Amino acid sequence: MTGSAAKGAADTEGQEEPVADLVPAEKRLVRRAGWLLSISDLLWIGQAALLSLVISEFVAGRPQAGLLTLVAPAAVGFIALAGVRQWLGLRAASAARSAARAVKTRVRTTLLNAIAHSSPAASLPSSGHVAAMLGEQVDALGPYLGNFYPQQFRLKIVPLGILAATLCVSWLAAVILMVAGPVIPLFMALIGIRAKAASQGQQEELTRMSGFLLDRVRGLETLRLFGALGRTEAEIGRVGEAFRTGTMRVLKIAFLSSTVLELFSALGIAFVAVYVGFSLLGSVTAGTWGAPLTFGGGFFVLLLAPEFFAPLRAYAAAYHDRAAGLAAKEKLQELYSGIVAQGLQSGPPEGSAKADEKPSAPAPRQTHAPEIKLDHVSVTFGGKSIIRDFSLEIPSGETAILTGPSGAGKTTLLDCLLGLHRPDSGRIFIDGKDLLTLDLGRWRQEICWIGQHPRLFHGSLRANLLRADPDASTEDMMLAVRLAGAAALVESLPRGLETIIGEDGFGLSVGEKRRIALARAALRKTAGLILADEPTAGLDDQTAIDVIAGLKKMAAGRTLILATHDPKLMSVPGTRIELDAAHLSEASA
Question: The pTM is what?
Answer without folding.
Answer: 0.57
